[in-house]
Amino acid sequence: MVRVTVPIPGRSYDVVVGAGVLGEAALHLPGFPKAERAFVVADQGIVDRWFGTLATGLTAAGLDVVLLTVPSGEMAKTLQVYGTLLHQLAIQEAHRDDVIVALGGGSTGDLAGFVASTYMRGLPFVQAPTTLLAQVDAAVGGKTAVNLPEGKNLVGTFAQPRAVLADTEPLASLDERDFRSGLAEVAKYALTLDAELLDTLESDPAPVLARDPAVLESLVFRCVTAKAGTVAADELDTGGRLVLNYGHTLGHALERLEAFAGRTHGEAVAIGMVFAARLAERRGMAAAGLAARTGRLLASLGLEVHSALPPADEVLSAFRMDKKFHGGVRFVLLRAVGEPVVVDDVSDDELRAAMLEMGASA
Ligand code: GLY
User: Fold this and answer.
1) Pocket of ligand 1 (CB under 6 A)
2) Separation of 138 CA from ligand 1 center, angstroms?
């Protein structure tokens, strides 16, 4: 078991990573002395397997446990599901010292965090991520949100959890597609912030793909360590944290164009990282070869980077709904591995040309 502190002044918390930490929640959580109940917002797809384990841990921490199930994946992140949860909390008379616990992937955590940060103007919450994607990225850093049909994460808050319990046991039984989707975010950390991790992945991805427990613990630890430092320096995503959006401008646009029911978040971000690398090369910002290297890395992790893009005009319109749109579409590009920069002067012509190179129709 390893622990990473997210050192945000006044709101610092620990991410506990290791096998069995859900069942040992009482050992790892901070005290919630005035809380009576823990409301566990759980993904319906994993509730049978992991809720009992978490409930044992929370009960040992002196909390009565109430289960609230939500749809799996991105389909949970709607205003309707959000509203249903608020009603359930109100009917059950949840009070401001009670605790919300998110059990599931990144979508469950985004939704539950948004509920926790808005119900009665804010309840404490804990993230208990069960997917690789949520453990390495989404559950850490306090971004909460639901989607609108017009765009991803358009309604949300910054609200830090009190703790993150990243139990690596659920990763062993994670659906292959979800596991590989998480590897896209791992690749993001490797390409933007952790050259040593990139080296490890490029030299031999087999232990990662085999889900070796020690390798996974170290993978999650490395990504969370990189994220903790980035978030502590820029909690509200106005500067350094923006680099964590590498691959996400195109990624979010694809997710929205596919009505959040096509490519997974990680699959979309993987294509977005290849696209960003092509843009960087086209501008002469990065040396030729970055896009090919990015594509090789992602393919070695089982991610598809050559699938068809929607027509370029549709993607250009979708970019304009991105919440980071500031007059020009904002992209994170790499000068080289480990050297991300944020740019917002990429022209439609450049975007269109890079999309056509990747097989989009005009
Ligand atoms: N997932 C990117 C961030 O938390 O800033």
Assistant:
1) 137, 141, 143, 237, 241, 244-245
2) 6
Q: How far is CA 164 from CA 103, 113, 140, 161, 345, in A?
A: 10, 12, 7, 7, 37
Looking at CATH, the fold of the domain delimited by 2-173 is given as Rossmann fold (3.40.50)
Q: What is the pLDDT of residue 152?
A: 85
In this structure, are residues 144 and 120 in contact, taking their beta carbons and an 8 Å threshold? no
Q: What is the CATH number of domain 176-357?
A: 1.20.1090.10
**What pLDDT, on a 0 to 100 scale, did the predictor assign at position 328?**
74
pLDDT tens digits, residue range 297-354? 999 999 998 888 999 999 999 888 765 555 678 999 999 999 999 999 999 999 999 9
Ligand 1 atom having least distance to the Cα of 143: 4
Expressed in angstroms and rounded, the spacing between residue 324 Cα and the centre of ligand 1 is 12
Give 93 Cα–ligand 1 centroid separation in angstroms.
32
Q: How far is CA 236 from CA 8, 163, 240, in A?
A: 11, 19, 10
pLDDT, tens digit (0-9, with 9 covering 90-100), for 97-106: 999 999 999 9
